[in-house]
């Protein structure tokens, strides 16, 4: 077992080394972070009595720590108290790739797999910071405008955190990989792009008249790509955090 | 442990029973199938020496069997020979839900978690059928137009199959869940819809002149929602399969 590590990259271990199509892989921290930050949903895998579970949830990142919302809380709880090994994966589908034989059909995508040991965030200050971050990371500055969570609401929310120990990113972003011998075949081949986009914001009927869309939602314009917007709000959130820490 | 089962529903077991927000859950087969069929990507969780892995891949369904492409083949191989417990999850993000306190923030989504025992599909006829299905399920009728896979290509492709033993679906599809006491607060609240859509098909530069977009891609129109298109192609694929079996 060889562990390679540089400041810019995660170590490669038997756990995160990409075995299949390894030319599509990277262990670069920024590449992993970009893929994580551009997604709203992740999938978290954990094990209970030998049985794997794969739970979709909302995640956010601070440095090399990942946090997520405590979906399936009751199932995970006992595992987490012992410090559970977890794999958190984020994927973006970017295109359908159609070739001249079945084997060369593919997809364009970006994905990141992150490994670590999950723990419950239950220290009051740390949990309060996390509950602020879950709002402000997506909608920078929004938490200051909200009615604060009650003690009961805070108690009912579960936050799980994990420092990324190792991780890998994998991506395909290109045209059809037809064999040269197939170029002449009279069959359509190409890429159908796929994009996840925002619709027009729908205001709740219970909001008082005169309330307009706030500045912290400026990035969420109709028709914009969700991954781009989330990348921007993460960058803005990090800037605002830095400013606050300095002032 | 109580096992309930009806023809229309998957049995509920300690493994698939939804613990959190169970009012959003169903065990109805058609509800689970609809969510599976509307997605191109899934996430598969499996365990190796106590370590969970969460791998994104392409899946397809025939009746209550799920198949997927053998990503991470080398890692899973040894596990699968013994018959590995697997959890395959599909999720759709449909909206971001912004409320008047942090606690009531949420997301609109549809997800399905499926449990079973995975095995490698390596019987020649079964594997050939699966490799045809991976093309025709998404692009009904396309496989007949393609250059057939070579023996070497078939060998290099790994197909994994699993009969769904139990499963659950979970969905949120509604407006903001603000507390009534918060209705008067002068803060924007609402839903930002999210949709995954298709772009304009980009033909490969290596396709001979005069080849036009084929009928089997008619559903993949620019701007259409991917989940709707995939639901339609699954239905069409099932119809064509039935016709072929009858003729």
From TrEMBL, chains A, B:
Matching PANTHER family: 5-NITROIMIDAZOLE ANTIBIOTICS RESISTANCE PROTEIN, NIMA-FAMILY-RELATED PROTEIN-RELATED (PTHR34071), FLAVIN-NUCLEOTIDE-BINDING PROTEIN (PTHR34071:SF2)
Name of the protein in question: Pyridoxamine 5'-phosphate oxidase family protein
Native species: Rhizobium terricola
